Amino acid sequence: MSSNPIKLGIVGVGKIVRDQHLPALAKDQDYRLVAAASRHGKVEDIPNFPTIEAMLDAVPELEAVSLCMPPQFRYDAARTALVAKKHVFLEKPPGATVSEVEDLKALAAANGVCLFASWHSRYAPAVEAARAFLRSTKIRSAAIIWKEDVRRWHPNQEWIWAPGGFGVFDPGINALSIATHILPPMFISSAELDFPENRASPVAAHVTFRTSDGLPVTMELDWLQTGPQSWDILAETDRGKMVLSGGGSKLAVDGRVVHEEPEAEYPMLYRRFAEIVRAGTSDVDLAPLQHVADAFMLGKRNVVQAFFD
Known about the structure:
Layout: E1 6-11, H1 15-26, E2 31-37, E3 48-49, H2 52-58, E4 64-67, H3 74-83, E5 87-90, H4 98-111, E6 115-117, H5 127-135, E7 139-147, H6 150-153, H7 169-182, E8 186-196, E9 204-211, E10 216-222, E11 230-237, E12 240-245, E13 250-253, E14 256-260, H8 265-279, H9 287-298, E15 300-304
Parallel strand pairs: 1-2, 1-4, 2-3, 4-5, 5-6, 7-10, 8-15
Antiparallel strand pairs: 7-11, 8-9, 9-10, 11-12, 12-13, 13-14
């Protein structure tokens, strides 16, 4: 812990903030949460403001901001903070487009502050073990299976269905953040995206990738999964079948569990943010977002039955 905790403001007080950010910050002595800005939500026991501009004007001692609003609105808030020379933590996905985040990277560098694209699933407890295992093997094929129930995880959140809301790629980008960390570089060769006839973002996706040396990788995303939820990455290797399950929480090889720990993604994210702030660097990997952009660009659009009328 530093003797001078980072003075942090949080923007966009919604479900993810209450479920993850606030509990992580409450236990982290590297930070002092001093303000919040949100159109609707509030954080108890600190000043709250309707906009990031009002927060920055009223609390000039802020050193960093954590931006947790929907991605369609994140660029303007991030630009405001960076121009004010505040370090910026971006919830995933870091922006609605690749070009937005590229501009933010340049703006952070120009203003001498840090930018962090917080791919939380990369910090799941078994991800590094999976990466080490795959680096020691010859991979023959891989598959990403990410299926969950949007009605359970995103109740009444209409922004995810709007243009720029990502739809099923909101959870799917978590899978891609892990896959781009543990698998060789890969490129989309084909995609099919299923759009409900009454929504502007997809509810399912079927994607095929190839690596530069021809390794086949498939990805199945579904946002209407009932029963058990599936957050798995599988790989056939010369040392057996690897299964990284539970969103990266458990690693098994040929059915034998070799790594499993309790989830602590957001505490680790904030630890990493403190590291880059104190080192004066940035950490912005655009590979997961680029794959989503490529899927929308290359994907065949299928219209499927409406739901949530």
